[in-house]
Design goal:
about 80% helix; mainly alpha; Growth Hormone, Chain: A; about 0% strand; 2 domains
């Protein structure tokens, strides 16, 4: 039975995570649609797009640093205080993007300032995910840990739905109005969401497991040192397991926006609509998959999703190349909505179960964010570069998706008995 306190904790972890990812995904989509024209100005449109995607990737490499900074605070001072800091930092950077002058107004200072704000976003999100996850899992009853751990993961897709919906509404404006001021509105509006998120988190206490560590006095002075000294294998496992969860996600959600509109002739509205429908589907399925993992096990769910991801790589591109909006939607729903959901639903809980509470914030954050930096932020950039190098053939991109699945299968094989068995049979 989920009590009142647990419900409040779940809402707090979900709301904050959703806001963080709403802010974050705005940039990813704008990189494909706007920033390559207004900030990263180049005579060659492909070069402009690659520069915009490079700025998208750059923040992924700052995320591990943000993770180290804020996970240190989280393991030493507390989960709640850390989450307030990360949400405030990210919200301020996103709002500032909405009022930033473009290249046409202030020249080269515009992309420099935009990249700086993007790096600040990366620092914030680097510490947010681990805290939201632990807020949920460390309050969870053992028999519902998979369900609780999946709730913060819903924030990824809810944030993306909010971001996509906001852009879809703004896209109804005339092109000139959208490029002039319409794209700014979601960034500025995010300030209201941040205020709401901080209010929701105000009344949440520290997690029982963190309190137990505090009372025991067994708190490492430098959690990052203890993590790398005693838990380096677990960190490597989480990095590898993160690869298939993050790279295909950005292929299906971010790269597809420019690929479908530029290479395949789909409208911007149709492409954003397909992504939005798929994210709604996966948002519904994530808690179902998380609850199912409490019955059949995290590892089985993860492997099933990873194998399916590998098998769907080529069919995905074949479907979207048929030129049908319906098949574009079907392909996106299958890949992002159905196959991806069991992978992401169990990922956080699986990570939390292989680290001790005293270094758990640092361990899960470090592995997750390094994996995201290696495979997530680079995914649209790699895919675009592969298209350019192989004359717009999708075959190398499909092989890249299959490669990410193979890496993660190898990592999950190394987990062996570390993940907790299902509590309900």
């Amino acid at each position: 039975m989920i009590n009142k306190t647990n419900r409040r904790v779940l809402i707090a972890s979900l709301v904050g995570s959703s806001i963080e990812w709403f802010d974050y995904f705005l940039y990813g989509t704008m990189a494909a649609l706007v920033f390559n024209q207004l900030f990263f100005v180049s005579g060659d449109p492909t070069v402009g797009l690659i520069l915009a995607y490079a700025s998208f990737a750059l923040s992924f490499f700052i995320r591990p640093f943000g993770g180290v900074i804020f996970s240190h605070i989280g393991d030493r001072i507390g989960r709640k205080k850390t989450l307030v800091l990360t949400l405030s930092l990210m919200g301020a950077a996103t709002f500032a993007m909405g009022i930033l002058p473009t290249y046409q107004a202030i020249g080269v200072a515009a992309p420099i300032l935009l990249i700086t704000l993007r790096l600040i976003q990366g620092l914030g999100i680097g510490g947010e995910w681990g805290g939201a996850l632990l807020l949920a899992t460390e309050y969870a009853p053992v028999e519902h840990r998979g369900l609780f751990g999946s709730i913060p993961q819903m924030g990824v897709t809810i944030g993306m739905v909010m971001g996509t919906l906001a852009l879809w509404i703004m896209n109804l404006l005339p092109e000139a109005a959208f490029m002039s001021w319409g794209w700014r509105v979601p960034f500025i509006f995010s300030a209201l969401l941040v205020i709401f998120g901080l209010w929701i988190r105000k009344g949440i206490d520290e997690t029982p497991e963190f309190k137990a560590v505090q009372e025991s006095g067994d708190m490492p002075k430098l959690p990052i040192v203890d993590t790398l000294r005693y838990y380096w294998r677990e960190v490597l496992i989480t990095i590898g397991a993160k690869v298939v969860e993050t790279a295909p996600f950005y292929i299906f959600s971010t790269f597809i926006v420019s690929y479908a509109t530029t290479n395949l002739g789909f409208s911007r509205s149709a492409t954003l609509g397909a992504v939005m429908i798929a994210t709604i589907v996966t948002t519904i399925l994530i808690p179902i998959m998380g609850s199912l993992s409490d019955r059949i096990g995290r590892k089985k769910m993860y492997i099933a999703g990873t194998v399916a991801m590998m098998a769907f790589a080529f069919p995905y591109f074949w479907l979207i190349h048929q030129g049908s909006v319906l098949l574009l939607v079907v392909a996106t729903v299958i890949g992002l909505g159905i196959i991806w959901s069991p992978i992401t639903a169990v990922l956080g809980t699986m990570f939390s179960e292989i680290f001790d509470a005293k270094v758990r914030y640092t361990g899960v954050t470090l592995g997750y964010q390094v994996g995201a930096a290696v495979a997530g932020g680079t995914a649209p950039l790699v895919a675009t570069a592969l298209l350019s190098a192989f004359e717009n053939s999708y075959v190398p991109v499909a092989l890249y998706i299959m490669f990410t699945a193979a890496v993660s299968l190898l990592a999950i094989w190394a987990v062996k008995g570390r993940i907790q068995q299902p509590a309900v049979n």
